[in-house]
Amino acid sequence: MTPQIDPDGRLRHLLTLDGLPRETLAGLLDRAQAIIDGVATRPLAGTAICTLFFDPSTRTRLSFQRAAQRLGADVLNFDASTSSTTKGETALDTLHTIEAMGVRGFVVRHSADGAVAELAAAVAPDTALVNAGDGSSAHPTQGLLDMLTLRQAKGADFSGLTVLIVGDIRHSRVARSDVQALRSLGTGTIRACGPAALLPDDATLHGCEVSHDFDAALEGADVVMMLRLQRERMAEGLVSSLDDYHRDYGLTAARLGRAAPDAVVMHPGPMNRGVEIDGDVADGPRSLVLRQVANGVAVRMAVLEALLA
Amino acid sequence: MTPQIDPDGRLRHLLTLDGLPRETLAGLLDRAQAIIDGVATRPLAGTAICTLFFDPSTRTRLSFQRAAQRLGADVLNFDASTSSTTKGETALDTLHTIEAMGVRGFVVRHSADGAVAELAAAVAPDTALVNAGDGSSAHPTQGLLDMLTLRQAKGADFSGLTVLIVGDIRHSRVARSDVQALRSLGTGTIRACGPAALLPDDATLHGCEVSHDFDAALEGADVVMMLRLQRERMAEGLVSSLDDYHRDYGLTAARLGRAAPDAVVMHPGPMNRGVEIDGDVADGPRSLVLRQVANGVAVRMAVLEALLA
Amino acid sequence: MTPQIDPDGRLRHLLTLDGLPRETLAGLLDRAQAIIDGVATRPLAGTAICTLFFDPSTRTRLSFQRAAQRLGADVLNFDASTSSTTKGETALDTLHTIEAMGVRGFVVRHSADGAVAELAAAVAPDTALVNAGDGSSAHPTQGLLDMLTLRQAKGADFSGLTVLIVGDIRHSRVARSDVQALRSLGTGTIRACGPAALLPDDATLHGCEVSHDFDAALEGADVVMMLRLQRERMAEGLVSSLDDYHRDYGLTAARLGRAAPDAVVMHPGPMNRGVEIDGDVADGPRSLVLRQVANGVAVRMAVLEALLA
Question: B149 and B67: one domain?
């Protein structure tokens, strides 16, 4: 593992929330909240940040781009998934080339587990990488923005909370980063629920209450985190049909009644309405979905600032 | 219809020129002219504007992007037509997501009639949409830039003018916005000409002099507005061949001789040279084509400023 | 040929290094070096620069984009190779349209020889074009950055140097611009080496020592410039196999031993590791590959500043 914290405790890259010290994590959340509360500066004026996406994601790229703009940085977008010029070039050569152009901050997405950490191990001492999602391993800024959203809704003490994560946890980097952050912040109970084929068979859910019964898992939950169902799970035979999935694991208003009276609902987006979540829940008063998106910009500003300012 | 003017007369969105008060329209033109004449400011510094194109158009996107840059705004480009991440997500969810990132200005193009107004009905009170073209309904900034170009060429009083619009009016949002604006500004005579299959069968041309004979329609016209012939009209069987179209409705230098001696020629671009317009006319002294493009940036600055500053 | 120097000696466009006065070339290199050494300004604030690529190249586009950003310019990117809106529109109409939007600086790449010079002949007096590569004719900023890199490594006096260019010189605009610049700067000996099918049969290599024997050509070379082997050369039957090519013209560490003891290695990128260059050479102490990329931004800043400031 590439160290993302340097010997004197400074954040060098952000690759994963796994093992990120609680004070570092809380410090990033505090800074994001301060940004939201109006501490406006442009500390990265003159700095260039490159979004380097080997796997496309317009939504995440836009959020990082807006964060970089608000920090005053210049943004270069490189969609490596469609670039023909990089054919035959390794991801590392591409990164080193853009680094040589004087770019010090990279926001990197890759379809392979560990690919971003591998790149981070090979960059110059003053170059910083933010993992914008690698394989099904980690999506640390999504984890951070979820924690900030939770903190705003439920307060900074998570010890009394029951948080339920529902869906395709096996393939979800969001779920992994969320579980790591929830553990780090001392969450009382973490529940995980989904069909057996979509639950991980590794240590991801260590210490979590795992179940296949959504109705039972919802009982008394304070927070319900729904995951997106990728449609390719059908082709892979892991899910029989969207209807079946909705029947067993779709969050409906009726189902949400089983959760705590003041339960909140989260989803990383983009949502499949009518599949893992019903429209009236997504748009309802319990939904924090758009609050998550808004917090995403602030959290990414806090991270880029911590790495580059 | 979503109101684009709020109760106290302020422009909230720009969706169509249909029913836009004459003083609002003229005010936007005045402001655009002032921008051209050198009133330079950056009133949108720190503001983000997103070009959200569900239907691609590089030319229109670039014009809005340059307008936003000159106003000092940060620009986010979202080409929703090629984004795979938005698959399965509704246009409204996409818009709400980017809105949640703190973006207040959207420039939206969509292939469906009314789609932009529908989105405008669902946004936050301080979010403004500019319709950059929806279906064959409206392209209001094109209408405005055409009016500004006309005003520069012929003066602000349109009551003595004969304006001729030629071509595929049925499918043209440009023609609809132009006709609405020409009416609003009190144009003396509006003529419309094209093959029957390409003329609208609704109220679009109410009050216009409609004809299928281009030569006759040209007699004494002060302004000739040519429309682009989309090549798919051939596949749809609405036009027999490009040669036939050029013979009947192509603007040649000889034909232009029938118009008023100081007649001017306009075209929204991109031009099919040798189809609806000959190269020597397009590049000739009567052509205002590039002036239209130049005015486009100023008009879009005036609109974005009116909506967001 | 469009004049790229105006009557009073000012650079009007940058289209080729062929015939560029030595003092102009050296002046651009001096300015690029000054930029690297820390002379920071934003002389192009408020100016718009459009990258207009009729042939895609993410790497070159990013380098120009970063250069423009560092000069304070606003950047518009137009990938004409993927834009559907420009179908049926000529390259000149596209250029004139963006020019009409108030853009004065264009960075243009085109697949056809001479296409950029042809466009330059038709623009407004205050519009400047930079050739970012046309066909196999010229890539002048690559030539400039290579010269800057050489000057940093070997000093400004090239009269004692032996420079070897290896590979597909026939199809390489980089090689043409390099040879022109090396001649202009009075390089002692220019050698060219490659298989017969990949060497030009025109005057490109006039005055160069031409050979097909890589090992012999390497003897005593101070500088080894490797060219990228485009994989389409195989399909065209000009190269039998990548393995054969590597055996005959691939730069290995062993082969490099034949060059001068302090020989340096250059490559314009992207590299085909294991084909024209081995990874240990590309990443070794003699390699200037990333230094070339870094100099590219400074050289492009110097050029854009010379044309537009």
Answer: no
**Could you list the mean pLDDT of each consecutive 10-residue stretch along chain C, which spans 309 residues?**
75 78 77 73 90 91 95 92 67 93 94 92 91 93 93 93 97 94 93 96 93 97 96 86 96 97 96 96 97 93 88
The tokens for A34 are 């301060």
Determine the pLDDT at residue B39: 63
Taking CB atoms and an 8 Å limit, are A270 and B74 in contact across chains?
Answer: no
In whole angstroms, give the CA distance from residue A172 to residue A135: 8
d(CA B275, CA B226): 11
What is the count of structural domains for chain A? 2
Most B CBs within 10 Å, among C81, C85, C94, C99, to test the B interface: C85
Residues of chain A contacting B96 with CB distance shorter than 8 Å: 290
On chain A, the residues whose CB falls within 8 A of the CB of C293 are 97, 100-101
> Could you tell me the residue range of the domain that residue B86 belongs to?
22-139+294-308
Q: Do B293 and C84 touch (CB under 8 A)?
A: no
Q: B38 lies in a domain? A: yes
pLDDT above 90 covers a percentage of chain B that reads 71
Separation between Cα atoms, residue C134 and residue C110, nearest integer Å: 5
Distance, in Å, from the CA atom of B216 to the CA atom of A48, rounded to the nearest integer, reads 60
Question: Nearest-CA distance from B267 to chain A in Å?
Answer: 34
Between the CA of residue A283 and those of A275, A278, B287, C308, what are the distances in Å?
A: 15, 9, 51, 51
Judging contacts by C-beta atoms under 8 Å, the chain C residues touching residue B297 are: 101-102
Euclidean distance between CA atoms B62 and B60, whole angstroms: 5
Please check whether residues A146 and A172 belong to one and the same domain: yes
**Whether B101 and A57 lie within 8 Å, measured CB to CB:** no
Assigned token pair, C171: 């199809």
Flag whether residue C59 sits within 8 Å of chain A, measured between CB atoms: yes
Share of chain A above pLDDT 70, in %: 97
Tell me if C96 sits within 8 A of C105, measured CB to CB: no
Question: Nearest 5 degrees, angle CA B70-CA B73-CA B78?
Answer: 110
Which of C57, C62, C291 has its CB closest to that of A98? C62
Nearest of A154, A178, A189, A198 to residue A268 by alpha carbon: A178
CB contact under 8 A, A97 and C269: yes
Stated pTM of the model: 0.92
